[in-house]
Amino acid sequence: MSPTYIDKILQPGEVIRYRGRPSKSAALMRPAALLFLFAILDEIDHSLRYSVITTASHSAKTGGEIVVGILLLFTVFALVINTIGALAFLSSAQYAVTDRRVVAKYGLIKRNGVDILLAKISGVRVNQGLFGRLFDYGNVVVQSSGSGRRLVLIKSPKIFQSAIHSQLEASRLIKGTAAYQLDVKIAKSMAGERVHNSATPTSAPPLPPGTPAQWREDPLGEEAMRYWDGDRWTDHTAPAP
């Protein structure tokens, strides 16, 4: 299997954690609707032709045939264009979550790309309409720097959203990464810039060896969360949720 666009832009050491797929149902829905419209117009055209043969009102029926014939022509043209567009979208759309960022690419003539570092992501939401819920597709909107970037027509968008959330949580457990620094900064902001640098709670009982780095209930009994860095309790605190 030849490498994809996303495989080619990976940085050294970067690993893909989840690959999304474009929805065939969503991409082919418009051509299917046009095909259904063509079938209806074709049936009307046959009915008009039969009426011309069996009645004497040739002029009225001929005018109706011309109108239906023009509609059939435009429908066929739209069907061909939309089918080509749908197949091009399905062959070009790529979505992935790596251990560092969210990347996507779709479109052949007009290429749309998304490349957002995990540390820059402030939120992820899924947009689904009625048909999206029925056929399990939708758009994933990734919020970054006050704006949202759309990843369109993804199959199982909720799973893709969960993959982003999981990787965000995993990256924030690694001390020294940009995501970890962002997490500490957010905690300070939530505390109203009142994150108190109390002495490191050396008297607090340590957690069992191997406990992963994470926010936990403050062992000193305060109504707050304190960060365990994997080895010891730190002086970083935040309001309890």
Task: Explain this structure.
This protein is α+β, with helices and mostly antiparallel strands and 241 residues long. The chain folds into two domains: 165 residues, PH-domain like (Roll); 55 residues, no CATH class. Helix content is 44%, strand content 26%. Strands 1-2-3-4 form a four-stranded antiparallel beta sheet. Strands 5-6-7 form a three-stranded antiparallel beta sheet. It has a three-stranded antiparallel beta sheet with strand order 8-9-10. β8 and β9 form a beta hairpin. The longest helix is centred in the N-terminal third of the chain and has 35 residues. The two termini are 47 Å apart.
CATH architecture of the largest domain: Roll
Distance between the termini: 47 Å
CATH topology of the largest domain: PH-domain like
Give me the number of helical elements.
Answer: 6
Strand content: 25-35%
CATH class of the largest domain: Mainly Beta
With strands numbered from the N-terminus, the spatial order across the biggest sheet is 1-2-3-4
Looking at CATH, the homologous superfamily of the largest domain is Pleckstrin-homology domain (PH domain)/Phosphotyrosine-binding domain (PTB)
Helix-strand pattern = HEHHEEEEHEEHHEEE
Question: TL;DR?
Answer:
The protein is an alpha+beta fold and 241 residues long. The chain has helices at residues 5-8, 24-54, 58-92, 130-135, 157-172, 178-190; strands at 16-20, 94-98, 101-106, 112-117, 121-127, 137-144, 147-155, 214-217, 224-228, 233-239.
